[in-house]
Amino acid sequence: MATWPLEFTIISTRRDSFETDNDELVRGRRVNLNLPTWLTVFRLALIPFVVGLIFVPAAGYSQASAALFGIALITDWLDGHLARRWNQASAFGAFLDPVADKLVVCAVLVMLVYRDPHYYVALSATIIVGRELTISALREWMAELGNRGIVSVGRIGKYKTAVQMVAIFIMLFNLGTGGKWYTAGIVLLASSAVLTLVSMINYLRQAWPHLIME
Length: 214
Known about the structure:
mainly alpha, Four Helix Bundle (Hemerythrin (Met), subunit A), two-stranded antiparallel sheet, 70% helix
């Protein structure tokens, strides 16, 4: 019977541009597929179901989509908690976790705009998705410069994420019904868009001295 963590080995035969013939080696690299990582993979697998249910303009489907989105949120918390508690944090998990988060959020926001194309929903969604793309590119560039820690997640970014997730859940659950709760979700989404801009400006301000040095 398999136990956690499961592992598999990736064999790399790539020749880096800076290596000589004598330096070229075949490397075995272990990628830990432990339970926290499998939870992240599961979150990725939920995306087509969450999106597909939003696409159905019938009663009950948006609530089912909201339920799956809630499960995705639980796995987002649980994978990080277990990785820290069981000391199973890995480079692969650290890469995959934010990718899963961004894909879930961006996919759902696109479908929310499809179902509710009002300008205030579209504008908030555009700001959030645009920020995610900008900061992802910034983090990659800062990593190239060896200064990735400068754009690590800050307090405002955490607040933004919390408000954003609650807003999306409320909007999904009340999609097509309107009412006060759906309006509250729209207000929270707009608030998260404001926090998104503030956090992006803070990241850019911190990274700017290092960017202009190049």
